[in-house]
Amino acid sequence: MTLITISLNGQDMDLTYEEAVKIALEQNVGLRMQENQMDVIRAEKAQSRGEMAPSISANLRGYRANGNTFLEQEARTINTTSDNLSASVNANLNIFSGFSQINRLKYANASYEAQRKLIERTSQDVIFEVTNQFLQVLLDIELLKIAEDNLKTQELLFKQIEAMVEAGNRPKSDQYDQLAGVKNMELLVLQGKNNLSNDKSILAITLQLDPTVQLTLTDPAWDLDEVRLTEFNLDELYEISLTNRPDLKQFQLTEVASEKAISISKAEFAPSLYAFYALGTRYNDQAIRSIDAQLTTDNKNSAYGLNLSIPIYSGLRNRTQYVRQKVQFENSKINTENLRKTILTDVRQAYQNFLDVRSAYDVSLAQHEASVMALNVQKEKYSLGVGSLIELTNSNNNYVFAASKQAQAQLNLLFQKVILDYHTGILQAQ
Questions:
Q1: How far apart are CA 248 and CA 237, in angstroms?
Q2: pLDDT tens digit string along 283-328?
Q3: Hey, which of 139, 208, 216, 272 has its CA 20 to 30 A from 323?
Q4: For residue range 247-281, what is the model confidence (pLDDT) as tens digits?
Q5: Are residues 287 and 190 located together in one domain of the fold?
Q6: Which residues fall within 8 angstroms of residue 325, CB to CB, at 6 or more apart?
């Protein structure tokens, strides 16, 4: 079981990637509203099943009447105030109504499954968003660490140059130039802290956390080499996406529901046949017979039979409803086909971007290694007095740039794999 560690003062939270996804899935407003809507659709699905059974109702009526009252047992009418009680039970069974009940059941089942797929895709949307923000914070942390480490290096170099200037081995201008470099790195550190704070705030808002909570993220330690060495086949990715994309399945199920809605509207043109049964009794306090005799013997009555209803003219209401459902069905097919094409386009772009980002990561590794070697050479040359501060500064800037690019390329590669999984519909919490 995943646990979230929160300090006693309630202001600090150690957050893993799995915990972030779990919180987001529990707190996302849109997802929660869709799950609430699922309760309604589930009830409608149960209703469509229940309508297959007979409808039964019971009625009980008590009233006081003033005026003429006919007493059947005595065959006379009296003018008085009487207390009356009547009760009845009625049952109706739909025998045939143009197969509307069967189609309503199929419509409800398709709508239920479509909503379930919508929730599944929305969950992937939430995971995608949280993953992006989580990795961005990790990138901010790495970039801030690079800036802070370089600031320490520049401060140490400034002290060395300062000592060299005092010894007369370096011009005073080198000291000023290096001081400017130190101040520039201090600015980069400050910007890095601001970026980290802002991106943490964005993540906290997404997770619906209190703004005062200080987040400490745990590196998920995903296997970058596994991602880097993974090979994909574009045709297989197409097939996977068309098989697994929840939103495509949702659109297809919506198309099925729209088709069933057409059948339901057609049923309004067909005759309907119902079987009915009614059982009733009543009591009048002016009759000479007892209440028990009146209710169980004298006034007891029942009726049963068939009721056939034939629609003849309804002001074109049925026709309009049929046309409306037919148009919705055609629009559903258009939406499904459009989404299918969009999915294939997105998968192709994500696949190509993954290849590009992977190549960029390999290049960043080589650039970083070369920048480290060049910086070490310039440091040694400068310490021996055969190199200039400009060359050393340029090498250091190249190193910082290469280190930042490597960090970005690393997390970009991880996130591009997430993008690929998202577009193929297989994205899950790592």
A1: 15
A2: 888 888 888 888 888 888 999 999 999 988 888 888 999 999 999 9
A3: 272
A4: 999 999 999 999 999 999 998 898 999 999 999 99
A5: no
A6: 258, 261, 262, 264, 265
Q: Does residue 266 fall inside a structural domain?
A: yes
Number of Cβ within 10 Å of residue 28's Cβ equals: 21
Domain that holds residue 306: 60-96+275-310
130 shares its domain with 84: no
* The two structure tokens encoding residue 10: 């309630």
Paired with 199 in beta bridges are none
- Which helix (H) or strand (E) is 115 found in, with range? helix 100-167
3-state helix, strand, coil in the chain (%, to 5): 65, 15, 15
Q: So what's the pLDDT on residue 134? A: 93
> What is the reported pLDDT for 390?
78
User: What six digits make up the tokens of 294?
Assistant: 């009146």
Strands 214-217 and 12-15: parallel
| CATH number, domain containing residue 353 | 1.20.1600.10
Other residues' Cβ atoms within 10 Å of the Cβ of residue 289: 17
Tokens standing for residue 159? 């002290």
Which amino acid would we find at residue 351?
Y
Based on the fold, state whether residues 329 and 305 are members of the same structural domain: no
